[in-house]
Amino acid sequence: MILQIVVFYVLTWLFLMLLGGVQQATGILPSVIGLAQWGPGIAALLMLVIFRKDRFKITFFSKGTPIQRYLLALLPLGVGLVVFLVSRLVPMQSTPSELLDKLPLVLVWIPLGSLGEELGWRGYLHKKLDTRMRGLISSVLVGILWMPIHVQFLSQGPLFLFFFTLTTISWSIVMYALVKDSGFSVLLATIFHLSLQLINLLVLDRINDISFMMINALVWVIVAAIFVLLNRKLYFGSKVQG
């Protein structure tokens, strides 16, 4: 399994750089559109071909998933609103974002970008890790691996990246509870990811401020901790080695 994880992550970065480079060189899409978001998804689909003997399958949609689970996938809208309201109480550096200037195009892209990422992170990586690791451990690992591909934040300094890593780990923990029983449904994960990106439109002017990222991280850590406390068996249950 270690080999597959390493190959997947290398391919993810390869396609991330390739797609980002093509977009920058050709100018086929404005910079506010992250074509590189499809790096993890393409890597996951290629893994199915390279390691086809594993007979690994990505679950795009689970028929038995109750409607309540899809409503839970909208949780980021509520949590994000809390973060937005709290952050408005704290003085922060505000930087206008060009995203808002191309909002219609951004809204068209967000679902596609979310799908591209979740094919890789939940559809392939987390589902693969889940066969060998306890839920909490696999969630933390996916969250850590997920963070660096947000290359726009890598220049913000170590403290900012620390809080952003806490955020991606918390997202990963919550999403595990959401998609685990559905076979790691890509649709469910995409709805969650889509909700994250939509609510982030409210805070684009402050998203690079370290105070905002600290508030965002702490709120999501609390949410993730609640999920773990309410689902201890899910996160701490032992795995049968295969």
Fold blueprint:
Elements: H1 2-26, H2 39-50, H3 67-72, H4 75-87, H5 103-129, H6 135-146, H7 158-179, H8 186-200, H9 210-230, H10 232-236
Helix pairs in contact: 1-2, 2-5, 4-8, 4-9, 5-6, 5-8, 6-7, 7-9
In short:
The protein has helices spanning 2-26, 39-50, 67-72, 75-87, 103-129, 135-146, 158-179, 186-200, 210-230, 232-236. It is mainly α.
Task: Give an overview of the whole structure.
By secondary structure, this protein is an all-alpha fold. The model has no long low-confidence stretch (mean pLDDT 93). It contains 10 helices and no strands. Helix 5 (103-129) crosses helix 6 (135-146) and helix 7 runs parallel beside helix 9. The chain has one domain (58-236). Helix content is 65%, strand content 0%.
Features of this protein?
mainly alpha, about 0% strand, about 65% helix, globular
Instruction: List the total number of helices.
Output: 10
Intertermini distance:
10 Å
Number of domains: 1
User: What is the count of β-strands?
Assistant: 0
The structural class is mainly alpha
Shape: globular
**What's the quaternary structure here?**
single chain
Helical content class: 55-70%
Average pLDDT confidence is 93
Radius of gyration: 18 Å
Q: Please summarize the sheet with the most strands.
A: none
Order of helices and strands: HHHHHHHHHH
Strand content: under 5%
* Low-pLDDT windows of residues: none
